[in-house]
């Protein structure tokens, strides 16, 4: 425990600053919700927070994640430009507030909120994202997932099977990837931070090796034509996710070796084999030092 706190201390300040900035940024009126068509009736909506998925059926729509509460009106407005069908299902890929903060605003207009059972538990009880110092207060009952599952759940829409798959102890302990089997589209949630270092929430069931295993499992579902909606980053494909998994595996191997040699996180972060990824992956949400601190804290539990 003492060692883990030592590793956490090196990056907690920078993460608290990052969260403070995002908390202000998500209220900015300049945020625009931008749609990208992924398949015939499937869209990715970007704004601020986790990427949203939207699937339009003949009679209803299915929404995946809902970003920050102050953006709910803009998200609603953009959806109305694409369809006049009501939202029957709102799927939460995990519990983090940048994916679920809009739940209270959407709860009165959607049929049912769906998520892994651990998501309901964390939203119902409240939790702390420890590296951020971010307290998530308990959600009201109407904003909680009313339909939960443990391992796998299928929704059938316009003749297509939409499979919800749980990957235990990856980004969190409640991650869902959404596989549109016929359309060959996967919404990976935060199992993919495309083109950037991923955040693994060790404080809420996340696990470094579990994250790698989850990425491998999603890649097993994909072929060269699969469109992958990441939790953060641009619309991606199998090659993009393979690139990011390669980076993660290589960095984890270096961190393991350096920790075994008694190196500190600060020293590890200067390793040339890690720094080579800074131009490609270190310009996103986490910088290299913060990312290495997270890995060290996870690998030393």
Fold topology:
Layout: H1 2-25, E1 34-39, E2 42-46, E3 52-56, E4 61-64, H2 72-82, E5 87-91, H3 97-100, H4 103-106, E6 110-116, H5 117-125, E7 127-129, E8 134-136, E9 147-149, E10 152-157, E11 160-167, E12 175-180, E13 185-193, H6 208-221, E14 227-232, H7 238-260, H8 265-268, H9 272-275, H10 278-281, H11 288-299
Parallel strand pairs: 4-5, 5-6, 6-9, 13-14
Antiparallel strand pairs: 1-2, 2-3, 3-4, 7-8, 10-11, 11-12, 12-13
Q: Can you describe what's shown?
A:
The chain contains eleven helices and 14 strands. The chain has helices at 2-25, 72-82, 97-100, 103-106, 117-125, 208-221, 238-260, 265-268, 272-275, 278-281, 288-299; strands spanning 34-39, 42-46, 52-56, 61-64, 87-91, 110-116, 127-129, 134-136, 147-149, 152-157, 160-167, 175-180, 185-193, 227-232. It has a seven-stranded mixed beta sheet with strand order 1-2-3-4-5-6-9. It has a five-stranded mixed beta sheet with strand order 10-11-12-13-14. Strand 13, helix 6 (208-221) and strand 14 (227-232) form a beta-alpha-beta unit. Helix 1 crosses helix 11 (288-299) and helix 6 (208-221) runs antiparallel to helix 7. The termini are close together.
